[in-house]
Specification:
Elements lengths: L1 E9 L8 H9 L2 E8 L6 E9 L1 H13 L3 E4 L4 E3 L19 E4 L4 E4 L9 H5 L5 E3 L3
Antiparallel strand pairs: 1-3, 1-4, 2-3, 5-8, 6-7
Helix pairs in contact: 1-2
């Protein structure tokens, strides 16, 4: 079983279509909606955890892109704002995947987006709000 969290960005033209229904029905994928901001006739965004066979997942993502939707891994929407970060390390204690770590040599907090699962615990843990989620 393959599972990944993705962000799907809708255009006003597509927002009225049953995209997630078609994704589940045609590509045998199970979805869990983690966050959504979708309005009629406007741009929208939805964060999903998709699970299924890897081949079905790849076909499903291809289907979404062919419909004109922008699809990316959720971890690509999480970022460290280095202009705000004071490298206190508070976020590292809350990161369940090790995407955030404190490098003793440089006294800096390092962020590895490839390890990030998009749980957002770092966002609420950061006292200066240097960890951000860009969904729009």
């Amino acid at each position: 079983m393959y599972s990944k969290k993705i962000v799907i960005r809708y255009t006003p033209e597509i927002v009225q279509q049953p995209v997630i229904y078609l994704l589940a029905q045609k590509h045998n994928l199970v979805f869990n909606i983690l966050k959504a901001r979708i309005f009629p006739r406007r741009e929208g965004v939805i964060v999903l955890e998709l699970s299924g066979q890897k081949e079905d997942f790849d076909r499903g993502v291809r289907f979404l892109k062919e419909m004109g939707l922008q699809v990316e891994a959720l971890s690509k929407s999480v970022f460290q704002n280095n202009e705000k970060c004071v490298h206190c390390g508070a976020c590292t204690g809350f990161c369940p995947t090790g995407a955030l770590s404190f490098e003793k040599q440089t006294q800096k907090v390092l962020f590895d987006p490839e390890k990030c699962n998009g749980c957002e615990l770092c966002v609420s843990a950061c006292p200066v709000r240097a960890m951000e989620i860009n969904l729009l």
